[in-house]
């Protein structure tokens, strides 16, 4: 359901997840609509910086020297990671959302940005109430990060058009699945999220009960648009 939200007086942080060159340039891992995702993420980033909010960047850099391959984890013919290899220049964060000096960067070896153990203490130190999330892929690293954020007691604002996945359908169904269980948090779009960062009120979507959205192949896109 829709409700009015204000972040005035709240401690808010922006987390950008895996917005790396790999998602733009690697044909196997390119995110659908990545240019729009990056553009919207950049708008969030500008608003967060202008209002003095904490900004954190997370990037997937698979380092077998730090964490050996997990059971059944696919590897390339030369024994290296099949994606996000730490030695690849494509693990660089995209220039549109590149970190500035002083903005924390979390390099992770698993899906969730919380997996390395550095992120939760950072948010606790700043007494963060709300975490605004943008990134890729929606059903994978974004979803894992959101679930761990909720477990840490953070309220999550998922910015649906500042996230992406391999296809539009994968992204939209992932957002619907997250919305169904985003307890304590909300779903919105970039324009409303920017307004919230600037102290305005905005209409956002919240789950009034567990799994309120029962979607199927024919109405998923329509229900996504209504969030």
Using brief descriptors, characterize the structure shown:
alpha/beta, Rossmann fold, 227 residues, 8 strands, globular, 6-stranded parallel β-sheet, 21% strand
Structure notes:
The chain has 227 residues and is α/β, with parallel strands linked by helices. It has a single domain (2-70, 80-226), classed as 3-Layer(aba) Sandwich (Rossmann fold), CATH 3.40.50. Helices cover 31% and strands 21% of the residues. It is built from 7 helices and 8 strands. It has a 6-stranded parallel β-sheet with strand order 4-3-2-5-6-7, with helices on both faces. A two-stranded antiparallel ribbon has the order 1-8. Helix 5 (168-180) links the parallel strand 6 (155-164) and strand 7 (186-188). Helix 4 packs parallel to helix 5 and helix 5 (168-180) packs across helix 7 (220-226). The protein is globular, with a radius of gyration of 17 Å. The protein starts with a strand and ends with a helix. The model has no long low-confidence stretch (mean pLDDT 97).
């Amino acid at each position: 359901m829709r409700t009015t939200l204000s972040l005035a007086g709240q401690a808010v942080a922006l987390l950008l997840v895996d917005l790396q060159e790999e998602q733009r340039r690697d044909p196997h891992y390119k995110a659908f609509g990545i240019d729009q995702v990056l553009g919207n993420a950049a708008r969030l980033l500008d608003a967060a910086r202008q209002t003095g909010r904490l900004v954190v960047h997370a990037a997937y850099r698979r380092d077998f020297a730090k964490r050996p391959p997990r059971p059944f984890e696919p590897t390339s013919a030369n024994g290296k990671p099949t994606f996000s290899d730490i030695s690849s220049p494509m693990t660089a964060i995209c220039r549109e959302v590149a970190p500035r000096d002083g903005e924390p960067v979390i390099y992770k070896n698993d899906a969730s940005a919380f997996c390395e153990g550095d992120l939760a203490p950072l948010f606790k130190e700043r007494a963060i109430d709300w975490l605004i999330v943008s990134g890729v892929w929606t059903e994978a690293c974004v979803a894992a990060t959101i679930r761990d954020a909720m477990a840490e007691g953070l309220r999550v604002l998922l910015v649906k058009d500042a996230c992406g996945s391999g296809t539009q359908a994968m992204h939209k169904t992932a957002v619907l699945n997250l919305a169904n269980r985003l307890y304590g948090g909300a779903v919105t779009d970039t324009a409303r999220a920017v307004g919230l960062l600037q102290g305005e009120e905005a209409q956002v979507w919240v789950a009034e009960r567990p799994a309120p959205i029962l979607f199927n192949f024919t109405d998923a896109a329509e229900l996504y648009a209504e969030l």
